[in-house]
Amino acid sequence: MAQEKHYRVDYLLNGNYKTFYIRASKMDNAEAWHWATVDAGVGQLPKYRTDPVTKLSKPQAEKHGITDVEWRSA
Questions:
Q1: What is the CB neighbour count within 10 angstroms for residue 28?
Q2: How many domains, in total, are found in the chain?
Q3: Enclosing domain of residue 30
Q4: What pTM did the predictor assign?
Q5: Residue 61: strand, helix, or coil
Q6: Residues 7, 72: contact at Cβ < 8 Å?
């Protein structure tokens, strides 16, 4: 298994500030947007770790009121 790190993800959901921490092997902007959608209750989690999951893109997330996603190492 790859080395996992802790990340902090901040975003706005319909104008309200949200933040959460996640442990992941990699993080980039696309991953941060995906996890923000999951935290907001819009995105999907896989039932099992190896199951594929459809990740929402930035434009799709913005249609659900998710904006200003930022992330950094925690």
A1: 9
A2: 1
A3: 5-73
A4: 0.89
A5: helix
A6: yes
CB contact at 8 A, 63 and 2: no
What is the Cα–Cα distance from 51 to 56, expressed in whole angstroms? 16
pLDDT tens, 6-54?
Answer: 999 999 999 999 999 999 999 999 999 999 999 999 999 888 989 998 9
Q: How far apart are CA 31 and CA 40, in angstroms?
A: 14
Tell me the C-alpha distance between 3 and 38, whole Å: 22
Residue 35 is inside which H or E element, if any?
helix 29-39
Phi, psi of 54 (to 5 degrees): -80, 125
